[in-house]
Model the fold of this input.
Amino acid sequence: MAVEQKGWDRNQMAARAAEELEDGMYVNLGIGIPTLVANYVGDKDITLQSENGMLGMGPFPYEGEEDADLINAGKQTITELNRTSYFDSATSFAMIRGGKIAAAILGAMEVAENGDLANWMIPKKLVKGMGGAMDLVAGVGRVVVVMDHTNKAGESKVLKACTLPLTGKGVVDRIITNLGVLDVVPGGLKIVQLADGISEDELRASTEATIVN
Done:
């Protein structure tokens, strides 16, 4: 007998995040699970922006069709569309800082109940730098975080307060994890949706942050 899967896998999390997008939106996808969202946009009229200088990203290429010159911010090969445009980093960040990007879907190491986000470094570990994360959370209209609910030790990554260096304070609007969807609201987090096979008690037990009704 097949064992029922509990919770969403990475692709299901990305597909759920794609449901957040609406026709006409310009959207930035962060490194990690968020890059998979490009595969689930479907027929929606969404324009994906990459801070390394690309507007109008398509899904990941099929094996054997990769173009090493076409990459996203995470250095993964991607495809272009018939409306794709290219530009320098200054223009890219002018779009972000100028409020032209409607939403960012980002990964995270930790999220706090007040919307604080930590997604760029772990002290004493080598990191490449913050990249565009700080600009994104300050400049876009809506920030959606997609991440695993707990770390490898089973400890909650959805916290009362972040312990890692912050990317931004009070910037997160919605959190999508393998256990469900939560919104940042006054007083804590509100459960919007439970992942497949996950009960509310299970989600609450895996969440350090305050969950309000």
